[in-house]
């Protein structure tokens, strides 16, 4: 039983990391139908922001608190720049966007290598997050994992509320459901796209801050994570968030269970096969946005 | 609704021009100019290159030509079929590993085990799935058929359910990721991160001998030319036209009574077979196959050469792949950091601003001339060919 819960929580914490990364992608992919391969490098930007802040703010706890909003803004700004300079011109060619943003991600990785050096760097975790929480039954849960889970859930909650309640959220939903109709109703779709890109990329920055708690920071840290996160969005279905939330945790648990029963490498293959099988059943993803548009 | 399986490519399939609209490309027959072009290419590869280049440069060229074979396949699947496959490394790797396994077993002699298995010492005897590769009659066909079977399996599942566009690209990339992790994880039987290295012989010939290296180069050059001839017939056949039609308007083709899934499947499987063949020939040319050569990054790098040369053309992918591979070797030796920036810039500039690749500059000049010709003959001028279908968001 303890083992089962332990695996379940490992899976959930893998899922929380996936979710943090996938949320931003779900926003941008869902609204603009473009694949942003540089999303992984926005994660990296968030992580390096934490590292840089820790050079000046010595208290590990405070630097983390400051890093969250700063990383959000840094990564978000990078996202907006990318949207204005490149992606905006390519909305009609989603596959080309994928390749172009891959090129951008290569350049950003090399930039990180030139600025911070090729070897990985490490941040200090605040003391509060280094310990474990002991649960009855001999089960322990690492504090940093718990923090990431809380951060992911907070991000989901904030995003959901923002999409439901704010005027901006209403405009985003309108553009996602029917871009042309939104445009003729007076929604400034280009500006909404840019804002969505800011939010989505900013969330990648938050994910970067969270990842500094789990391991070292390196120029290629984003590449390895981004594919799993894309799979989450593809399987979850685009145009809404709840699919991504469910699938992120489901894939995390599947990965952890597979890893426990077999090995890490076999678990990856199991996850891939499961995804292909799932898409046989629901090729559009878990939830699809139903609209009356004919497009 | 009748699902029409695509006709096999044949010379007789060339559609006759009807009405005032000319066929999309004149000439499905192996015309004189094409024959001259192939003769020129053959002379370049078989006579000029071996005479001009040193042994070292020639072996590098052999490596580039293997990359070019993968590029030809990507040109069919992506340029002609609109399927951006970011996992060609998987098929390249399947072909490469199948060949390398055979060569390792041949090196070890009958009943022997590859050196790395003895080194890791986890195994007492050869694993069951290695055994068939001892026979060249199994291993050689497997280098092509194994990738084709995998592509057929994935493709038939995915295309039939109309998973396409970016979804397909992500899935193909995830396949590459899974394959590499699997190879690294099973170190005892696959060689892990090191891959299969130190291959000495190639069907009884010593690979360290420069003469035999030349022989390998000639085999590779000949194979590439053969693949190009095959591709030329394929894209000028009726099937080739259908493939472009599926790329530009899948729903319309479906309404016409064809089955787009099988049209795409054929292109994907052919591309996989070419990548497998390329991987198999890469092994004797370079002497190694490893996860680092087939993962996510190399898989997407196969694509950039195709984009640079011109994705929808016959020669564009080959020339682009060779040019990019050559630039990588030359520049990354001298300025490793700069090359990464340059490669990134290449992706951005070519794909965003010159989606037809360098070939589109050539085509632009040709079209100017062609439009004048059409007007003279009273044909409708050819429309601007779109490089890629505008993706309509799913309702």
Automatic annotation (TrEMBL), chain A:
Mode of membrane association: Multi-pass membrane protein
Subcellular location: Cell membrane
CDD domains: TM_PBP1_LivH_like
Transmembrane segments: 6-27, 59-82, 146-163, 197-217, 229-254, 261-281
Molecular-function annotations in GO: transmembrane transporter activity
Pfam families linked: BPD_transp_2
Keywords: Amino-acid transport, Cell membrane, Membrane, Transmembrane, Transmembrane helix, Transport
Chief location bin: membrane
An annotated GO BP: amino acid transport
Domain of life: Bacteria
GO-annotated cellular components: plasma membrane
Alphabetical list of InterPro entries matching this protein: ABC_transp_permease, ABC_UrtB_bac, BCAA_transport_permease
Family designation: Belongs to the binding-protein-dependent transport system permease family. LivHM subfamily.
UniProt-recorded name of the protein: Urea ABC transporter permease subunit UrtB
Species per Swiss-Prot/TrEMBL record: Micromonospora arborensis
Gene responsible for this protein: urtB
TrEMBL record, chain B:
Topology relative to the membrane: Multi-pass membrane protein
Transmembrane helix recorded as keyword: yes
Chief place where the protein resides: membrane
Protein's name in the database: Urea ABC transporter permease subunit UrtC
Pfam families: BPD_transp_2
GO cellular component, one term: plasma membrane
Highest taxon of the lineage: Bacteria
Transmembrane segments annotated in the record for this chain: 35-54, 60-78, 137-159, 166-185, 215-235, 255-275, 281-300, 312-329, 341-365
Subcellular location: Cell membrane
Organism: Micromonospora arborensis
């Amino acid at each position: 039983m303890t083992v089962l819960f332990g695996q379940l929580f490992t899976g959930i914490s893998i899922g929380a990391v996936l979710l943090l990364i996938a949320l931003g992608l779900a926003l941008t992919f869902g609204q603009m139908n473009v694949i942003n391969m540089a999303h992984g490098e926005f994660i990296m930007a968030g992580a390096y922001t934490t590292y840089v802040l820790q050079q000046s703010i010595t208290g590990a706890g405070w630097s983390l608190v400051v890093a969250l909003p700063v990383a959000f803004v840094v990564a978000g700004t990078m996202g907006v720049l990318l949207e204005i300079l490149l992606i905006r011109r390519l909305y009609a060619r989603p596959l080309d966007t994928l390749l172009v943003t891959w090129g951008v991600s290569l350049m950003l990785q090399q930039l990180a290598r030139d600025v911070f050096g090729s070897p990985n760097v490490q941040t200090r975790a605040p003391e509060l997050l280094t310990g474990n929480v002991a649960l009855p039954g001999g089960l322990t849960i690492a504090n940093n994992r718990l923090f990431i889970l809380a951060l992911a859930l907070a991000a989901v909650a904030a995003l959901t509320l923002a999409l439901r309640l704010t005027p901006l959220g209403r405009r985003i939903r309108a553009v996602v459901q029917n871009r042309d109709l939104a445009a003729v109703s007076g929604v400034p779709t280009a500006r909404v796209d840019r804002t969505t890109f800011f939010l989505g990329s900013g969330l990648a920055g938050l994910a970067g801050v969270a990842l500094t708690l789990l391991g070292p920071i390196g120029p290629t840290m984003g590449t390895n994570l981004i594919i799993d996160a894309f799979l989450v969005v593809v399987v979850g279905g685009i145009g809404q968030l709840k699919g991504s939330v469910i699938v992120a945790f489901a894939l995390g648990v599947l990965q952890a269970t597979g890893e426990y029963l077999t090995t890490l490498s076999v678990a990856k293959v199991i996850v891939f096969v499961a995804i292909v099988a799932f898409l046989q059943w629901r090729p559009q993803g878990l939830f699809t946005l139903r609209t009356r548009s004919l497009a | 609704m009748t699902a029409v399986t695509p006709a096999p490519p044949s010379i007789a399939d060339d559609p006759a021009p009807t009405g005032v609209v000319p066929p999309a490309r004149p000439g499905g027959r192996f015309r004189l100019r094409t024959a001259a072009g192939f003769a020129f290419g053959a002379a370049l590869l078989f006579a000029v290159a071996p005479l001009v280049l040193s042994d070292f440069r020639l072996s590098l060229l052999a490596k580039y030509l293997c990359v070019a074979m993968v590029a030809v396949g990507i040109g069919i699947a992506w340029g002609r079929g609109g399927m951006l496959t970011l996992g060609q490394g998987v098929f390249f790797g399947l072909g490469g590993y199948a060949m390398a396994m055979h060569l390792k077993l041949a090196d070890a002699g009958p009943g022997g085990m590859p050196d790395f298995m003895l080194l890791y010492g986890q195994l007492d005897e050869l694993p069951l799935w290695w055994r068939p590769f001892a026979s060249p009659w199994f291993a050689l066909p497997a280098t092509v058929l194994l990738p084709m079977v995998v592509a057929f399996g994935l493709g038939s599942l995915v295309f039939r359910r109309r998973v396409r566009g970016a979804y397909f690209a992500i899935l193909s990339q995830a396949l590459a990721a899974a394959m590499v992790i699997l190879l690294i994880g099973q170190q005892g039987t696959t060689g892990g991160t090191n891959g299969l290295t130190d291959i000495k012989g190639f069907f009884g010939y010593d690979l360290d001998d420069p003469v035999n290296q030349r022989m390998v180069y000639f085999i590779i050059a000949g194979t590439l030319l053969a693949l190009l001839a095959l591709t030329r017939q394929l894209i000028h056949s009726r099937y080739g036209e259908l493939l472009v039609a599926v790329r530009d308007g899948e729903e319309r083709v479906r309404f016409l009574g064809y089955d787009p899934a099988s049209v795409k499947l054929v292109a994907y499987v052919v591309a996989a077979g070419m990548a497998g063949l390329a991987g198999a020939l890469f092994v004797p040319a370079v002497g190694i196959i490893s996860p680092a050569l087939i993962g996510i990054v190399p898989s997407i790098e196969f694509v950039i050469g195709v984009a640079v040369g011109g994705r929808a053309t016959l020669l564009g992918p080959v020339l682009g792949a060779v040019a990019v591979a050559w630039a990588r070797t030359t520049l990354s030796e001298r300025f490793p950091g700069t090359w990464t920036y340059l490669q990134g810039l290449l992706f951005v500039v070519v794909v965003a601003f010159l989606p037809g690749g360098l070939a589109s500059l050539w085509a632009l000049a040709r079209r100017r001339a062609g439009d004048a010709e059409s007007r003279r003959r009273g044909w409708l001028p050819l429309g601007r060919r779109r490089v890629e279908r505008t993706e309509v968001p799913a309702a």
